[in-house]
Amino acid sequence: MYKAPVEEIAFTLKHVAGMAQAIDSGLLGDLGEDLVEAILAEAGRFATEEIAPLAEIGDRQGARLSDGEVSTPDGWRDLYRNWAAGGWNGLTAPEDFGGQALPHMLNVAALEMWNSGSMAFALCPTLTMGAVEALNVHGSAALKEKYLARMVSGEWTGTMNLTEPHAGSDLGVLKARAERCEDGSYRIFGQKIFITWGEHDVAENIIHLVLARLPDAPPGTRGISLFLVPKFLVDDDGSLGARNDLYCHSLEHKLGIHGSPTCTMIYGDGKFGGEKGAVGWLIGEENRGLACMFTMMNNARLAVGMQGVAICEAATQKAIAYARERTQGRAPGWNGSGMSPIIDHPDVIRMLLTMKALTQGSRAIAYACAHAIDMAHRAADRREHWQERAALLTPIAKSFATDAGVDVASLGIQVHGGMGFIEETGAARYLRDARIAPIYEGTNGIQAIDLVTRKLPLSAGGQIRVFIAELKAIAEAVRSSNLDGFGTTAERLEAAITDLEEATDWLLTRLTRGQSAEALSGATPYQRLFGLALVGCYLAKGGLARPADRAGEGRIALCRFAAENLLSETAALKDRVVNGAEALAAAHSVFA
Ligand SMILES: Cc1cc2nc3c(=O)[nH]c(=O)nc-3n(C[C@H](O)[C@H](O)[C@H](O)COP(=O)(O)OP(=O)(O)OC[C@H]3O[C@@H](n4cnc5c(N)ncnc54)[C@H](O)[C@@H]3O)c2cc1C
Fold this sequence. Notes:
The chain is of the alpha+beta class. The protein is 56% helix and 11% strand. It has a domain of 137 residues. The chain binds flavin-adenine dinucleotide.
């Protein structure tokens, strides 16, 4: 069973992601290390003792639709209410609406634990948090007054309605319609698919944020508006009124996250009688809906990255426990009687170390991204720098961690042997759940395009160059530490950073010359190369900050393993970036 790794999370936050420095410099207000540890400990307890035990039943029962009502798995309704009563939904939300205005770093750490407990369950609050942010930044005072406090408390949940059957990665072609009404409200019509927690029984009301197009809107992405459309209309005194003209038509049958209802939503077909059209209110300005969504994109993408980290952690814990118990064969140097535990076989150790390195590395990348988001809000004198850093790290945090989630969950099954393929072990669920994360919230291919075409050019390449200089300083610190335990870590890090630098220069040159096809061909290998270099550097940063004890030695040993085993891939990835485009373009004929 999953046990939240509270100490490891606290260590990564403080010593790798930059929280200790932020506390020391007073940027996190009254928040001190004691309070951070207390919050993490309680979140860890809730995830371990309350959420994780209900994950399996959620997977087995799934969400069920009957007469338009969706019921969640047994126990989830109380679980959600207890979770919300703990105040967890409002960790980062504004104090004016009942939130705690705590740093994002703390929230992503908590999100990791909720998702390790059950990714399907954690999706519900993840969507609500995104809706709260969009409403808080772009909503009118009246909308905020009416809805925010009850969304912050978790009493009402939120959703994001973007996708339509023909509009997924390309939202510019979406067709949902909005019509203006004389009283300032709008009527919404259309179909949305794949809407996470679009209908359920855990909360009294569901506040849908829906992208739709006004009749006179310009075509493409510049003609999309964002609307708040509640399941139940809310009276002026805050009580729930009539049912709005929207409903869940069907639930998807999915590979994983069975407990999370993935809904086809119908707006405005008059199912409940009366005038047709779901009543909605504009968020932000007309035709600026996509820009509103982009405000919260960094956080939402990072939240999905946390799903990857969470699955990595849970799958690794399960595999280590199994490998300690399962005995087969005799490992080299085994002196005991009978068979040795499989954890003593070099190939099993290799798998477990790979899983652990990817877990800790992904966690560090994601927390560093959250740190940058916090600094962008709090470090007034360097706001632009930190905004750019958060923007640069977001696609890497999302894509690397979610790919790692799939790889680590798959390795977890391998460690279990045949039992990994059998559902009763629980290892297979991690892989089934993990598989969606590289797809939604912008596929990892779309993240790579974003990284290369929008993030590398920030400050004319200045942001990425400053970042690479910081990574070089970490490698230099490893070199000058002269610690034997690091082995050839310094050299390996330097080589990986050089690969990153050369690939970056190549891509920036192609972009400057307008050779976007060449640049895009190498975008995904570049994204992975970047992630791997960061894994090496952040594990080294943790190794340098380690306590001088056995756990500290283990930290250095893991860093060395990653540097000497995983980082050699960066050379091949750089080669694919700079030399792969021509062959890729020529091979189009394969599908002619
Ligand atoms: C379980 C689940 C939950 C979801 N939850 C929500 C939700 O709550 N709200 C919501 O609005 N949506 C949700 N989605 C939808 C999800 O965000 C989309 O599936 C995702 O954005 C991809 O869109 P698509 O499925 O249409 O794939 P497509 O856009 O058709 O992509 C197919 C493939 O083509 C690639 N591709 C597409 N365009 C390009 C391009 N320009 N360049 C290079 N490659 C490209 C993609 O990377 C992908 O590999 C959910 C989906 C699922 C399965």
